[in-house]
Design brief:
The chain has 78 residues and is an all-alpha fold. Helices cover 71% and strands 0% of the residues. 4% of the residues are buried.
Length: 78
Amino acid sequence: MTVFDILLLIVSCLLITIIVLQESKEDASSAFSGEKSDLFANRKERGVEVWISRITQILSITFFVLAIIASFFVDRLG
């Protein structure tokens, strides 16, 4: 395992954890009942939601960059 593989594993675990901490925007029952959804309503994030959203964005970008770098080294070594 390279350093990039270890970093990718750490970032993926953190990303899973932060996504699980997010609140759901919609009730699951309305998805199956066909009720009108407020999915695209203009709702502003506040407080902790803003920080969780920013951390999720940073971790997801980091994940994709590390995945590309790790795949580059796998192709070169294999």
